[in-house]
Amino acid sequence: MVVEVGYAQAWDLETRVPWRPIPVEEARERDAAGLPYVVVYRAAGREAPLEVRLVSWREHYVGLWAYDAQGRRVYELDMRLLDDPTRLLRRYAVRWHYTGTEMAEFDAACPRITVELFPDGRGRQQEDAQGKRGGSFITVPRVGDDERWTDRPAFGEWPLLSARSHGLTEPPVFEMTEPAAAAADGSGLPPTTCWHPPRPVQPGPIGELFRPGVRVTDRCHPEMTIVEPRRMGTLLVPSGLLAVSGPDIDHGDGPHITVPVPPGTYVLDEARARHTYHCEWEQSEVTRTETIAVRLLVSEAPAASWEMALRPDDDPRLFIKNQISGFDTDGATGCFADAGAWAPLLALFERGLIQGDPDLDPDVYEDISDSMYLLRTRDQDSGGELAAFATTGDGTYPVWVGRTEAGEVVGVVVLVEGMPELLPEGGVTAGA
Asked: Please, what is the end-to-end C-alpha distance for the chain in angstroms?
């Protein structure tokens, strides 16, 4: 079988065509420089590609998408280049099993198998026999080292990795194709519909959640208006290391997240949003104001950027698309605390909230009412404090750190539910 091979700067997912085709030598230069490019494999007489491969060495990433004759994606493989430059980790793979030619791409009823692998030998396999409509069967994949890792081929020597998916039993014959005209100068960015290396979840309008007058929406409320943040006291962090963690989880290794800040006392506040809805019980329009985020305010300076704080064992090179990191909770609770006094502060939290000790001195333990903040504990030796807050459920909650252009921390934010979206520009009232 003859397979045509072409190169481009990107691949448009909607139109399934390459964006800015480039000559092989330009692709070779981009490969050496770590810049992203794609390789498209086609068979004569077939409209849909056999396989599309995206390479971006600067992001430690090689991706593969295989298509069937109907143009549906049937296989996705995410490989990562880690510390050994000669091999790639098969980090993440999904295989779709369409039950007929009429079934739409990614149909909710399409059976699929998802496999995640890690360099330390861990792994996870999930089988969805009826796609998202049915239950899932989760196991630990039994894979050897040769299945977890694959050799890194030199430029131009990659095999057709999806050959088995297409039923090929003999190695294909590759035929290089070149663009009909000279490639563009490379200026400009690919459209948003183009494939790009997967990134962890990105910050939404975090700073705007503390700006009165801004309008936002979430999956439950079509329109909410941000009101003035509510100040709920202060937190003393004398050690200069802020802990953000779930205080209800086993902490043998300490808090989940730590953020260096200048030693000092910082404001604790809540971002709040107001919305109106029709209450069936009262048979009238009702207006409510709800807390959507909690913040430790380090500085009044505006944040130039927001980043997701990482745990000590996180490796950003292993993050898949929209993956989150953060603190875990089994009791819908998080906290800001002085990491230097973590153990005694956590012991007071457990004595007060978990054990209900009536003999706790109010100087070291106090309840907080009418707030997402639940309680505060104080270490008498260091003066360090812990402030626990409620979330809307269990799971993992990202911790967002706002920084100035110089990299200084201005605030640390936890959204107690999901990330709202900004409504159109008219959502900001005059003077906000």
From this structure: 65
Q: Are residues 120 and 213 in the same domain?
A: no
If one compares 352 and 336, the residue with the highest pLDDT of the two is 336
- Please give the residue range of the domain that contains residue 328: 207-427
Helical residues (DSSP H) of 297-365, grouped into ranges:
342-349
Residue 170 shares a structural domain with residue 231 = no
> How high is the pLDDT of residue 178?
87
172 shares a domain with 216: no
Torsion of CA 389, 392, 397, 402, to 10 degrees: -60
In a domain, residue 255? The reply is: yes
Give the pLDDT mean for 66-86: 95
3-state secondary structure of 284: strand
User: Strand, helix or coil at 18?
Assistant: strand
User: 146 — phi, psi (to 5°)?
Assistant: -75, -20
**What pLDDT digit, counting tens, does each position of 109-147 carry?**
999 999 999 999 999 999 998 766 667 899 999 999 999
Number of structural domains the chain divides into? 2
Q: Are residues 314 and 167 in the same domain?
A: no
Show the tokens assigned to 345: 């502060």
Q: Are strands 385-390 and 333-338 parallel, antiparallel or unpaired?
A: antiparallel
Indicate whether 356 and 399 sit together in one domain. yes
Are residue 277 and residue 170 in the same domain, yes or no?
no
* Residue 148 parent element (H or E): helix 145-148
Nearest C-alpha neighbor of 244 from the set 155, 345, 152, 158: 345
Neighbours of 224 (CB within 10 A): 24
Q: What is the pTM (predicted TM-score) of this model? A: 0.88
